[in-house]
Design a protein that fits this description.
The chain has helices spanning 16-23, 45-51, 53-63, 80-87, and strands spanning 3-6, 11-13, 30-32, 67-73, 91-92, 97-104, 106-111, 118-122, 126-130, 135-140, 146-152, 161-162. The strands form three sheets. The protein has a five-stranded antiparallel β-sheet. A five-stranded antiparallel β-sheet has the order 3-9-6-11-4. The protein contains four helices and twelve strands; from the N terminus they run E-E-H-E-H-H-E-H-E-E-E-E-E-E-E-E. It has 195 residues and is an alpha+beta fold. It has one domain: Sandwich (Jelly Rolls). It binds fe (ii) ion.
């Protein structure tokens, strides 16, 4: 379940429908989908895509997406730190970044034109999009794990355009809550992957 923070207003929203309503004027979708019972812990990428085919098809129609895949990130992922470094600096894309998380957790910071910076902590069951052209960055939580369905209008669209004067360093990517605790003997609760 997501947590929305607006750090500059010291505000936090945890109710799913309130999060959805707050984000809608910014062109950001938030939905909560079932995970328990839909897929097993060891589901393959293909099984995940098959399990969520109705939702994927609905989003494809809504946003003009043509392909979907599953990305798997874990502490064992080769060159993980270099990959996270790319995610964690303020950037934009030429198409929407759509992510449905089935495992793991992280924090999207979204920086809309004329709006406050929004910190959206996501975990299993959370669907979110970052609209095309909107500045954002992403950090994993302490478990350094995320498994997501991604949708693309054009797979080449994921190319990141970095904001030269990014403000990502001004915002702490804090992860909180029972689903976001770091693994036992892992880093402290606020020790997430930083830029
Ligand atoms: Fe991005």
């Amino acid at each position: 379940m997501a947590i929305l923070r607006i750090p500059d207003q010291q505000r936090e929203i945890t109710d799913a429908s309130e999060i959805c309503n707050f984000l809608a004027p910014f062109g950001i979708w938030y939905e909560s989908w079932d995970v328990a019972g839909r897929i097993g812990d060891d589901a393959s990428n293909e099984e995940i895509l098959a399990a969520y085919e109705p939702e994927i098809n609905r989003l494809k129609e809504r946003g003009g997406f043509v392909t979907a895949d599953v990305i798997n990130v874990s502490p064992e992922t080769p060159n993980l730190d270099a990959m996270l470094e790319k995610f964690s600096k303020e950037h934009t894309h030429s198409e929407d970044e759509v992510r449905f998380t089935v495992k793991g957790s992280g924090v999207f910071h979204i920086h809309p034109d004329g709006g406050p910076v929004l910190g959206i902590q996501i975990g299993a069951g959370d669907l979110i999009n970052v609209p095309a052209g909107v500045q954002h960055w992403f950090n994993l939580c302490g478990d350094r794990t995320i498994r997501c369905i991604r949708l693309f209008q054009d797979p080449a669209g994921w190319v990141a355009h970095y904001v030269g004067d990014g403000i990502h360093g001004n915002y702490e990517p804090v992860c909180l809550g029972p689903n976001f605790l770091p693994p036992k003997d892992g880093p402290d609760i606020d020790s997430v992957i930083k830029p």
